[in-house]
Design brief:
There is one protein chain. By secondary structure, the chain is mostly helical. It contains 25 helices and no strands. Among the domains are: 68 residues, Tetratricopeptide repeat domain (Serine Threonine Protein Phosphatase 5, Tetratricopeptide repeat, Alpha Horseshoe), CATH 1.25.40.10; 114 residues, Tetratricopeptide repeat domain (Serine Threonine Protein Phosphatase 5, Tetratricopeptide repeat), CATH 1.25.40.10. The protein is 72% helix and 0% strand. The protein starts with 6 loop residues before the first helix and ends with a helix. InterPro entries: TPR-like_helical_dom_sf (IPR011990), TPR_rpt (IPR019734).
């Protein structure tokens, strides 16, 4: 059962475009879409990298080199840099006698980026045993437990670092309230965090804050505020791929201008090539009815995720790909089960529920929804899948309630979801 919207519905949706007032202006973001060369070396990097020799004990060199590799990964999305950062950090942990906990925390954050959450938790525990930088370690433990779905433990660590004057606490209490489904409180805390970031004049914190609150503003239907904050991030970092992706989503989902959204993303993927970018481009091409572009981007996605260095980073995307575009439902089930083993969260369980749904194992899917998803997440995409499963199990009252909620989540779900919601 493939969720493919017929071309006639796409045509009608495009011709009867919702009366959404355009918020974006290409003149605002065009200056950031030109040819971009991302520097993946520098005199600073060469200096410290040059100090690393076979059997080197240059602890500072490994730390600095790992940080630079991490920065290159963020700017290019190239997995090689994240793996190189891991190697340097592992060497730093191995040889460190002083401040070892800091290198353990850095390696744990690298593992979080790789979706190696259980290994990250072990490193965080090791750092806690060493004792130094306790608040930083407790913050890390909150982050890891949230990723693993250990929400009671996460709340315990959040309470330990409570400090309304601290940026790190504010962004984490915002994340906690987002998990609880309290978007207004989430935004309130993020706005306080932005005040801290701006007063510190730390450009990195400001960029991170602007893009994150832009996401929250989008969830709240404050699309203009979201757009303005993505632009603020780009003013500080013209290469910021995340902000450009956010603007592309506004153009696609709110304004329903898929060709312009693709133009933005095409500019981004010239230098930033994470697999999920190409899956998004395929989604937009499908909405346009451009099967050739859709196939091209799906091929790029499949080739990219075949790189073993990604490990389990794209399990969720792979499940979605196989359920929608191939007949490999059994493979999708295996990947979903692996993801649950890695992080038993509602997000992971919903992958398995959808795999059962697509193989018409409706009762199994329903059991997962009721035990692991409902009232444990408020993500619209997951609730849409849950509604489809309830419908297959003949639960019309629940479907009706979910449908009413989902009709307000059109921006987050994207225009392609409208037909799915209406068919509930």
């Amino acid at each position: 059962m493939k969720n493919i919207i017929p071309l006639i519905i796409i045509t009608l949706m495009l011709s009867c475009k919702q009366q959404n007032s355009d918020i974006t202006n290409s003149a605002d973001y065009n200056p950031y879409l030109g040819d971009i060369t991302v520097r993946t070396s520098s005199k600073y990097f060469e200096l410290w990298n040059g100090k690393i020799k076979p059997d080197s004990l240059q602890l500072l060199s490994f730390g600095h080199v790992a940080a630079e590799y991490g920065r290159y990964f963020k700017e290019t999305g190239a997995i090689d840099f994240l793996i190189k950062a891991e190697r340097a950090l592992k060497k730093a942990v191995e040889i460190a006698h002083i401040n070892k906990e800091a290198y353990l925390r850095a390696l744990a954050r690298n593992y979080i980026s790789q979706h190696r959450f259980r290994e990250a938790l072990n490193l965080a525990k090791d750092a806690a045993e060493l004792g130094g930088g306790l608040k930083e370690t407790q913050s890390l433990l909150f982050d890891v437990h949230m990723e693993l779905g250990n929400h009671d433990l996460a709340k315990d660590y959040l309470d330990r670092i409570a400090d309304m004057s601290d940026f790190g606490y504010l962004i984490r209490v915002a994340k906690w309230n987002d998990y609880k489904g309290d978007l207004d409180t989430t935004i309130n805390f993020m706005e306080k965090a932005i005040e801290k970031a701006e007063s510190s004049n730390n450009s990195g914190l400001r960029i991170w804050s602007y893009t994150n609150i832009a996401d929250y503003y989008g969830h709240a239907g404050r699309i203009r505020d979201a757009y303005e904050h993505y632009l603020k991030a780009l003013a500080l970092d013209p290469n910021n791929a995340y902000a450009k992706k956010g603007i592309a989503w506004i153009v696609f989902s709110h304004e329903q201008k898929p060709s312009e959204a693709l133009r933005i993303l095409d500019a981004v993927t010239k230098y930033y090539k994470t697999p999920d970018m190409f899956l998004l481009k395929a989604e937009i091409a499908e909405f346009m009815g451009d099967t050739q572009k859709q196939a091209q981007n799906l091929d790029i996605f499949v080739t990219a995720v075949a790189n073993k260095q990604y490990g389990d980073m794209y399990n969720g995307h792979n499940v979605a790909y196989h359920l929608k575009h191939t007949n490999a439902e059994s493979k999708a089930i295996r990947l979903a089960e692996t993801e649950i083993g890695n992080r038993p969260t509602p997000e992971s369980y919903h992958l398995l529920a959808m795999a059962y749904y697509e193989t018409q194992q409706y009762q199994k899917a329903l059991r997962i929804v009721e035990e692991h998803i409902m009232h444990k997440t408020y993500e619209p995409a997951i609730l849409l899948n849950a509604a489809q499963i309830y419908k297959a199990n003949h639960k019309p009252k629940i479907v009706k309630a979910l449908k009413a909620e989902l009709l307000d989540a059109g921006y987050e779900l994207g225009p392609s979801s409208l037909a799915e919601i209406n068919s509930l």
